[in-house]
User: Fold these one by one.
Assistant:
Number 1:
Amino acid sequence: MANRPLVFGVLNVTPDSFSDGGLWNSPSSAIEHARGLVADGADVIDVGGESTRPGAARIDDGEERRRVEPVIRALVEEGISVSLDTMRADTARLGIDLGVAYINDVSGGLSDSAMLGVIAESEVTYIAMHWRGESDTMDANANYRDVTRDVLSELRVRIDAIHIAGIAPSKLWIDPGLGFAKTADHNWQLLRDLNQLVALGYPVLVGASRKRFLAPFGELPTDRDQATAIISVLSAEAGVAAVRVHDVARTVGALQVRHSWWGDSR
Ligand code: PMM
C-alpha cells in the first residue's frame, strides 16, 4: 500500500503496564498474542519488559532481560520483525544479538549513558523519543512555554548527541513522546503540529494508543481503540512513518479506508 505507515503492535511483557499489564506475562501467552497481532496486520512487534506508565517504579535490569529474551528469540525465529522497547544498554545489546530490527528507547539515550555506543556499533534502527525523566517524576515535568517548539528543540539536542555518538542519520527515527511529561493539551498540540516533526527529516513514530489523554473517548484504556485508530489515520495524513498501537486490527482497517480514499496517489 502506498505510503501506509508501518504498524507497530504493542507487546508489553509486564505485570503492570497501564492498559495490558499482566495479560501477556508468560512467554507462551506473549508469543501467542504477538502471532495474533501479526495476523491482524502488524508490520513490527514492539516488545517491552518494563512499564513506563506514569508513576511506575524501575525494575531490576536482569528481570527486564529475563522477561523479553524468550519472547524475542521465538519471534525472530519465526521471521517476525521485532522492536525492543528498552532504556537500558545491556538489554538493547541482548536484543541486537538476538536479531531485533529496532531499539525503541523512550529516553532517547538519556537514561543510560552506554546506550548510544551500543547502537552505534550495530546495524539496528534507533527510535529516540522525547523524554524529560523517569516515570515517577514525569508528570511534574509537564511544563512548556510552547510545547511544539520546546519538544522540537529538545529532540534536536538528542539528534546532535546521537550523531556525535556515531549513529548514521539513516538509522534514526524520532517520536514526540505523547503522554511522557505532557498534559492532554500538550499531546493534542503536538499532534496538530506533527508535520513540523516530520519536517525534521527523520521517520516519525507516534504512540497515542489508549493513552490517558484519550479518556474523554473511553473510560477504560480498551475503550479508546476507535480514537486511537482515528489518530493513526490523521498521523498518516501528517506523513508519519509508523504508529504504535495495541489494537492492530482497528488501525490497519482504518488505514485501509484511508488507502481507498486516496488510492496510490498519497
Ligand atoms: N509509549 C509507551 C511505551 N513505549 N515507545 C514509543 N516510541 N512511543 C511511545 O509513545 C511509547 C513507547 C507507553 O505505552 P504502553 O504502556 O501502552 O506501552
Number 2:
Amino acid sequence: MSGAPLDVARIRADFPILHQEVRGRPLVYLDSAATTQKPQAVIDALVRYYTHDNANVHRGVHALSERATLAYEGARERVRRFINARETKEIIFVRGCTEAINLVAYTFGRSKVGPGDEVLITAMEHHSDIVPWQMLCQQVGATLKVVPVDERGDLRLDQLDVLLTERTRLLAVTHVSNALGTVNPVRDIIRRAHARGVPVLVDGAQAPAHFRVDVQALDCDFYALSGHKMFGPTGIGVLYGKAAVLESMPPWQGGGDMILSVTMEKTVYNRLPYRLEAGTPDISGAIGLAAAMDYIDSVGLDAISAHDQALLEYGARALESVPGLRLMSQARERSGVLSFIMEDVHAHDVGTILDREGVAIRAGHHCAQPLLSCFGVAATVRASLAMYNTREDIDALVRGLHKVREVFA
Ligand code: PLP
C-alpha cells in the first residue's frame, strides 16, 4: 500500500474500538497524542503470544522459553530496523518515554553531570523531559537552562548557540511538541550541539505515528519512544542510544538479566542491551510494539504523513469558522495537534460538552505547564490526529464547538 494515498476506511476497519457509540453518538476519537488506538493486528499479537508462547525469556531451556526469547529479541531487531539504528544492542526496552528519559538522567546524568555543569532543555518539553533533569541538577549541583519559545510556537534557535556553553553536558529536546504540535528541526539542533561537543537526547513520543524517524540520519545520541503513542501497547517503550554512549554509562536498576555473575563480593554486569534491562521485561509489550511497527509499515509512513498533514490543514481551516476560537500554534512545521482556546469558555467545559457529542479531546495543560504559561494560559483544548481520523471527525468536532458557543452565548 506504500506510496498510494491512504485508504482510511480500510484502516478504520482495522481498529475495532473506533466502531462504537459513546453517549449515544458514534465515537470520534481525537486524543491520539495522549494514546493511540490499537489495530487488530496488535491485539492479535498479544493474544497469540499469551495463548501459545508465554514463558520467561533468556533463562529457560524449554521450547516455550526459546519461542518467547526469539519473539522478544525479534522485536528488538524490528525496532532497530524501524528507526534505522546500527545495532540491536542500541535498543533498550523500557516502559515508555518517561522511563527512557529517567534512565538517561540517572545513569548518563549522574556519571557525567557535576557541580557547576549545565543541562539544556527547551520551554516546550513535556514534564517527563523537564522533571528528571530538574531532579538531576538539584542532586548534583548543576544548572538547568532553557531554550525559549517564540509567540508563534517555534523554538528561539537564535538563542541556541548562546545557551550551549562549555559547561553544557546534555541537550534534551522534543521532536514534536505534544501541546502545540510544533515539529522541531532536530537534525539542525543536533548538528549545532555536536559542534560544541554536546550530546543530544530527543524525546520522540509524538513523532513515529506521523513520520519516519531515522536515528542515524538524525545523529542523535539518545532517542526515546513510547509504544502506546504509535499504535502499540501501553507499558512498553524504547531508549535508543549510540552504542559507544550506552557502553560508557553505568547500569541503572540492578537485578536479574543485567548480570553475568554475582557473588556476595562482586557482580559482573552483562553486555548491552541486557545490562540496562534488569528483571523480567515486558515481553508481550515488545511483541505488540513490533506488530504495531509492522502495521505502520504495511500502511506506509509516507502515505500516513501526507494524510496527517492534509487533515491538520483541513482542521486548522475548519476551526476558523468557530467564533472566538484561537489556535495556539502558528509554528513553521506542525504535526498531529490542533491546540486552541475559546474566548470566555474554560477548556474543561469545552471537553465536557464535546464528550456529550461523542467527541473525545483533551483539555488541560497536557503535561507542559511551563509552555502554556509562556502563552499566558493555564489550559487549552487539544484535538490530536492519527491515521484513522477523517474529515468527518473534524466536522463533528467543529459542530460540537458551535454547540459550545450556543451554550456559552
Ligand atoms: N514526551 C512527550 C512529548 C509526550 O507527549 C509524552 C506523553 O504524552 C511523554 C513524553 C511521556 O510519555 P509516556 O507517558 O508514554 O512515558
